[in-house]
């Protein structure tokens, strides 16, 4: 049989390279792709599976390719866009390796899901330190609360509340001497102090729920609500699963600040009562102390130190991941000399140095303020 006859018997073998070049891959629906984050000397993006919740980091070049996997582009299309962006050609083996990684992790349309992780136990830890999940379906619970409270989340409601909160803070802090007298008066009245401490505890619980409701407002997924204890203290917690993937900077900042905002809003009835009392009324000093303690407790959450909400807000505003640990790593390397941090871009060097100075100043300021307040209270 001639070569011509043999070719007529069946189709010619498919060139694997040609098939790979013609393939138009697409990410599976629901894959979460995060914004750029500075992590040490590198810029990274988080990629998260919509079902298993597994996440991993990729660099800017891998992110550029992944963001173009929409089912309409093949290798040649991506290569031309890649060359225009990075001034170099995307190697075919790199394209194949990246698609293999995405397929193995179940991130491409049509690929099988990875194995589901075992659900976490309802309770972890010991009597002295641990946590317990208290809500069976946290996402559904916060969804119901969000639907109930959604009319209150409109700007025409929230903006006046923010203005009222700012006016309360300015008015209460106008006379610092009254704050110390009021705090001392509150501390010497157990019948007022104990109920106020209980109020603060419930305020902290609502603080956590506020994070979850705000996350639901922006499309977040709440995975857990429970209690966490460090004997003898016990506090509620609320975990937002896709917090880092919420759309836009504003959503992340609002979710992070929602808890402190609720704490301050809950103090407004006390502030109104305080404002209506005569300055000579004996009930005014302990109310002043309550407002001072409540405002300090709420605002302290906005301090940019871990694990406070202000730390998360600063990280979002700066576009960084693990700001405090990466700062410690940078400082440790910097002590070895300039060559040890040569891989860090200029922005990273300035940012980590500035945060180290700021964090040290905040800790020193907090320690000084606390000691000064204690001395003044004891001297009265």
UniProtKB/TrEMBL annotation:
Has UniProt tagged this entry with the keyword Ligase?
no
Residue ranges that the Swiss-Prot or TrEMBL entry lists as coiled coil? none
Signal peptide (residue range) = none
**What CDD domains does the annotation carry?**
S2P-M50
Q: Where is this region: Disordered?
A: 1-20
Alphabetized, the UniProt keywords read: Hydrolase, Membrane, Metalloprotease, Protease, Transmembrane, Transmembrane helix
Query: Where exactly are the transmembrane stretches of this chain?
Result: 156-174, 186-206, 253-275, 287-305, 355-378
Q: Kindly list the GO molecular function terms attached to this UniProt entry.
A: metallopeptidase activity
**Which protein, by its recorded name, is this?**
Metalloprotease
Identify the species of origin: Streptomyces kebangsaanensis
